[in-house]
Each structure stands twice: as structure tokens, then as C-alpha cells.
Design a protein that fits this description.
The structure is a homodimer of 348-residue chains. Chain A is an alpha/beta fold and 348 residues long. The first copy, chain A, folds into 3 domains: 44 residues, 434 Repressor (Amino-terminal Domain) (Orthogonal Bundle), CATH 1.10.260; 144 residues, Response regulator (Rossmann fold); 131 residues, Response regulator (Rossmann fold), CATH 3.40.50. Helix content of chain A is 44%, strand content 15%. The first copy, chain A, contains 12 helices and 12 strands. At the A-B interface, helix 4, helix 5, strand 2, helix 6 and helix 11 of A face helix 4, helix 5, strand 2, helix 6 and helix 11 of B. Chain B binds a DNA duplex (30 and 30 nucleotides) through helix 2 and helix 4. Chains A, B: It comes from Streptomyces pseudovenezuelae.
Chain lengths: 348, 348
DNA sequence: TCCTAGATAGAAAGCGCTTGCTGTAACGCT
DNA sequence: AGCGTTACAGCAAGCGCTTTCTATCTAGGA
């Protein structure tokens, strides 16, 4: 039924070994023979059996990309950039690799399970994007799993995620702390003294780092933070909306709201508007990431731009071994403060 | 070095066959034996060799999801919904399948290459999302490829894409034409008579169908379309911005701009604002898809809501054989007109 | 002209798993 | 007590490819 290597060999009047060598191009084959084989491949419409090939060669051409939320452009942009470097179809890369993105939905268990599945497939490389979960048991499990993958020859790259010591993983880490600090300092510089903060889910590195940056800025300027000023939520618009209403309820005198990311900031803007407050006249708003839609908010969002595409591309290249890993295996990627219309001097 | 089935068998004092059966759970194994095997698996930290398993069983647990642009939430939302039904980790599904999304970037060649790669891997199913390219050669190539995949036992589902006759593919098609028509009729009903249209890339089914719906509405109301009123572009914000400026240049008397999708509409809004025009007082704007950010535009975007998540979930279930395919293999998914602030009665 | 090295091609041994078929023991029935 | 079942477990034959080792042939070199 299905065409096999042997069929091609028969048709080309050569041995299966020769066909394999032509297809893999890692062994000298006479030009005339090669051509004959290629013609047979074409005529029979032969498609290599991936599993058989992977089994025999003990390697596969699968590269996994793990993301927390595929519906979020934050991850979509990174994943797209990574995948384009993985090569896959049309990529710049040589070997045709299958770059596949796996959606963990932010669940630690799914993250682990996907890793196992990729381990099963003997993936050539794995890129993990975005923040990690900080719960100790999960971190330990992840470390063990990553180490095992690395031992099996899978190259591991972390993109926008803190380093995982002793796992053999390369890391391109976003400077979330620095970005958060810069953002809040900008607001403080404008004169704000009462700033609400809508954080992401707890136990996430991204959440913690951005919040730490925010607090560092506050304390550096002698502003004592009121515990009521921080609310945790998910990384989505809805959460931003609700959290903002909560902040307003807790302390109506806030003059600025800093959001965990741009989607949350959008929700915050909506909540403020629905509460009859003007942006930035009554309350300034700031986001994080600078996703494409952020500039279309009205007023445009003040935020921290993260070079998602660049970082993703670099991570992809490192995963493919086409770029030197950073010295020490770790590199920090900085964000850039984008001051736009949503932040202004506080009223009064 | 690596642990194999045989190692587990030895440790559990059973034959490899038994271990395999315990792991696959498709053959009676005594409870005590099963437990012993499972313990051995655990102690040795055994991970199944995917390729070997796929080769022997002549099937794999890979399910491919093809998207045109992974950075676009339109696809991200569908992909996420599909993947969650594919099961994979944490999904409701039983068998652990690896749902992987492949980013074609809208390139026909990449689409084909990904399909070949998935064919190589003997994918269990493939879901293709979003509009298709209409160039005849490519369509023929796609048909042939899909048919071949289907023949090899891969289940094919099209989600948000027109049916592919005689390929054995199931289709969940979006009623882009109907949605486009309804949207434009809404604007006409408000009194608009001069409507600009920003279409997507040419040779795309989605582009053509939405545009046809728009034109059907116009002619149904006796409005003769001026060729200057249509501009083609990409499905992104930037394109919407530029196209809007172009439309304004061609005919400043337009009172409404209909965009190919919400991102384009956002760009259109920005262009209008930058041109000193108010929305909807001077010009009404309408989008398509109703992505999450659309409600946050100011004013909120009038658009056609497509049930992306629902359609994706259903496509995923069909791909997994957990839901009956629609009768005739084809189902049409309708959109819902969402009237919001960006559309109003024309000035004067 | 004979010998050796270089260049290709083939034979065959797996890679690690699945599964049809073959035992074998325990069970229920008459 | 004897026999047909039923319930498990094992054997062994591949699945389709890669790769090491060996064989063959041709081109130089002495």
C-alpha cells in the first residue's frame, strides 16, 4: 500500500542503503545514481517514514515550543519568531525540522506532560517561553525533567524565562524587574504618589519580577506602599477590568494604575472609563510588553516594549545550534520604556 | 544508557509484550502484574520511545494544527481551543496526543511542506484553520496532498475554511459572506451610501467571501460601487492604517470604512483619528471577527463575532473522532453582528 | 603491467516497540 | 471427575529505516 524505501530502491535498481544515503546526503553517491534515485522517489511519490527514520537514527527533527497561552500575542509573536528560525518549511534553516508549538495554558502539569511527550518523541530541541511557575515541587520536577532531556541530547532554550540552574538550559531572560522599575519611576517622575498595581497570577516569575521592580521604584523614592494598592489577577483584559474596579473601591484617591501587561492595562482603561474617570487626566495607566494593539488604545498606552520577535528569533537560532549561546548560557534582554498618552501628571 | 521496554520487563519479571500491553491498556493484564510493571516503570523512570512505538503500531499520536499567523489571536484562539480538545496534556481526551501547531505564515509552500512533514510523522489528524489560498496550482497540490493524507488514515478537519471536495476532509466553514453582508447592511441601514472597503490579501477565500458579502449588500440596496472604494492589503493593523489613508485620498467623501478584520479596523481608526476625523461622527468603522481587544477600541468596534473558540473545540473533537462529523462532512458556522459605538448615522 | 588507494554500492544487523498466535493454568459446568 | 472456556502471559516476527562493515571497480603510481 504505502511506498517504502525498498520500493524506491527496487525502482531505481539500487539497494535501500543507497536510497537512504541519497535522501540524507551524508555519504558520497555518484551523481548518476543519485539522479536515478531521485527520479524514482518522485515517480513513486515516496514520503519518508518519520518514525522509522527516527528510530533507526535515534534522533528526530521535532522541535517543541512551549507557550503559556497561545491566544495571547505575547506568546504568539515569540512562537512565530522561534518557529521561523527553527527552519521548518521555508525557514532559513537547512534541515527540515518540524517546529511545533504546545500550549500549556499556564498549567504546570501540562507543561510537564508536554515535556514528557516531547521526550518520547526524542525532540531535537525544546524552547520554553514566558514566565515559570515558582511552586517549589513543580520547579524541582521541571529541573529534573529538563536535565533528563538535556542528557538525552535535546537542546533546551528558555526564552523570556529565568535561568534554570544545572539543567544545561540556555536562557534569554527578560529584564522584567528593570522594566517594571523604569515604568514606575516614570510615573513617579510625573508626580504620582499613590499608584495601584495589578499583578499577574501569584507564583509566577514574571509576576514577581515586575512587581519587585515596581516596589523598588517606590521605595527608591521614599514612597511607602499601601498593601491595598496591589491586586493579583490573571494576565487578561477581564482580570484588569475587575482588578481596577477593586482598586478604585479600596482607594479612590489613586492617581495611577500600573498593569502587569498590556491586556490587563486595556481592561483597566475600560474600567476607568466606565467609572467616569479620564485617562490620563484623572488616572494614568501603564502596561507592559507593548503588544501591537497597545498603540491603538485611546489614549495610546505607556508601556515597556519587550523585543519579543528578536528574542524569539535568537532563541530559535540557539536551539538550532546556529548561533553561539550567550556566555555562561545566560543573557538578559532589556525592555524599553515607551511613553505615550496614557500617562500624564496627576490631577490637582 | 536509556531505559527500554526490555529493561522494564526484566525488572518486573515479565515479558516485553506484557509491559507494552500494560502501557497501552488494550489487552487484559492481571491487576497484580500491571501493578508490578507500573512500579518498575516508575522506578526506572522509563519513557516510551515514541518513534519506535509509532513505527511498530503504524500510527502516531501527533495531531497537527496549521495556522496562517500564530501571532494573530484569530488563529491563537482557534488553535488553543483545538488543542485543548486534542487532549494532549490535561485535555479531556483519553489518549495522550501531542497537539502541535504549525505556523505557515500564510505561505502556500510552507503549508504544503508542513503537511508533508506531518505525513512523514504519520500524524493521527490534521486541522487546517483559516482561509485558503485560491491560486489554482496550489489548490490542486493541496487537494492531492490532503487526499493522500486521508488515504493514509489521517483524519482531516478544516476549521474556518471552505470545504475541499473529494479530499475526505471534514469542514467547519465560517459564513464570511453572510457576515460581510449583514455588516454592510447594518451600515446601509444607518444611511451610509459611500462605503470604503479594506480587503485582505487577494487570492484568499476569506478575503473574497467577505468582500462578496459586502458587495451583495450594496447591490441589494441599489448602491453602485465605485472601484476606488476597495483597497487590498494584509490582515494587520499597519495595512489598515495605510489603506485607510489611501481610501481617504481617493474619495474624501466616504462616510464609512469596512475592514477585512478587527486588526485592520484598528489601523483604520488610527488613520482616521490622525486625519482629524471623528468616529463615528465623521466616519463609521466596522471590523470582523470580534477579537477580545475590539471591545476596547474607542469607540468600541462594530464587528461580526465569529465563535472561534467553539468552532475550534468542535473541530478538535471531530479530529479526535469524539464527535460525529456534520452531515455531508460540511457545516457552516455563522457569525453574529455586534453593533457598537464605531458605527453611527452618517454626518449631514 | 601489477599493486594500492579512493570512490561507490550492497549486505545485514539492528533501533525499540506492537501484536498475532500459541501455550498454560485456573475456572465453571455437567 | 472430565472437558470446554476463559484469562493471562510469552514468543517471535516484523514495522521501515540507518549505518557499519565489506566487496567491487577504477584510476593512478612504480
Amino acid at each position: 500500500m504505502t511506498v517504502t524505501l525498498a520500493d524506491v530502491a527496487a525502482r531505481a535498481q539500487v539497494s535501500p542503503a543507497t536510497v537512504s544515503r541519497v535522501l540524507n546526503g551524508n555519504y558520497p553517491v555518484a551523481a548518476s545514481t543519485r539522479e536515478r534515485v531521485l527520479r524514482a522517489v518522485d515517480e513513486l511519490d515516496y514520503v519518508l517514514n518519520g518514525p522509522a527514520s527516527s528510530l533507526a537514527a535515534a534522533t528526530s527533527d521535532l522541535v517543541g515550543i512551549l507557550v503559556n497561552d497561545i491566544a495571547d500575542p505575547f506568546f504568539g509573536i515569540m512562537a512565530g519568531a522561534i518557529q521561523s528560525e527553527i527552519g521548518g518549511p521555508g525557514g532559513r534553516a537547512g534541515g527540515e525540522r518540524l517546529g511545533v508549538v504546545c500550549n500549556t495554558g499556564g498549567s504546570p502539569e501540562r507543561e510537564l506532560t508536554y515535556l514528557t511527550l516531547l521526550q518520547r518523541q526524542r525532540a531535537a530541541a525544546v524552547v520554553l517561553t514566558g514566565g515559570a511557575t515558582e511552586a517549589a515541587p513543580h520547579q524541582a520536577a521541571m529541573s529534573a525533567k529538563l536535565r533528563k532531556l538535556a542528557d538525552a541530547g535535546t537542546r533546551i532554550v528558555l526564552c523570556g524565562r529565568p535561568p534554570a540552574p544545572e539543567t544545561g538550559a540556555f536562557a534569554l531572560t527578560f529584564d522584567n524587574r528593570g522594566g517594571g522599575r523604569e515604568l514606575t519611576e516614570h510615573l513617579i517622575g510625573l508626580g504620582h504618589r499613590r499608584l495601584g498595581y495589578i499583578a499577574g497570577p501569584e507564583e509566577r516569575t514574571t509576576t514577581r519580577h515586575r512587581l519587585e521592580g515596581h516596589r523598588a521604584a517606590l521605595s527608591a523614592h521614599g514612597i511607602e506602599e499601601d498593601p491595598r494598592w496591589t491586586v493579583h489577577g490573571r494576565y487578561d483584559r477581564r482580570s484588569g477590568y475587575e482588578a481596577t474596579l477593586e482598586l478604585l473601591r479600596r482607594d479612590p484617591s489613586l492617581t495611577a494604575v500600573v498593569a502587569a501587561n498590556d491586556s490587563v492595562a486595556l481592561g483597566a482603561c475600560a474600567a476607568l472609563r466606565d467609572s467616569g474617570l479620564r485617562i490620563p487626566d484623572d488616572v494614568s495607566v501603564a502596561g507592559f510588553d507593548d503588544l501591537p494593539f497597545s498603540i491603538d488604545a485611546v489614549p495610546a498606552l505607556t508601556t515597556v516594549r519587550l523585543p519579543l520577535a528578536e528574542a524569539g528569533a535568537r532563541a530559535g537560532r540557539i536551539a538550532m545550534g546556529r548561533e553561539e549561546p550567550p556566555p555562561g548560557g545566560i543573557a538578559t534582554v532589556r525592555g524599553e520604556l515607551m511613553v505615550r498618552g496614557s500617562s500624564g501628571v496627576p490631577r490637582g
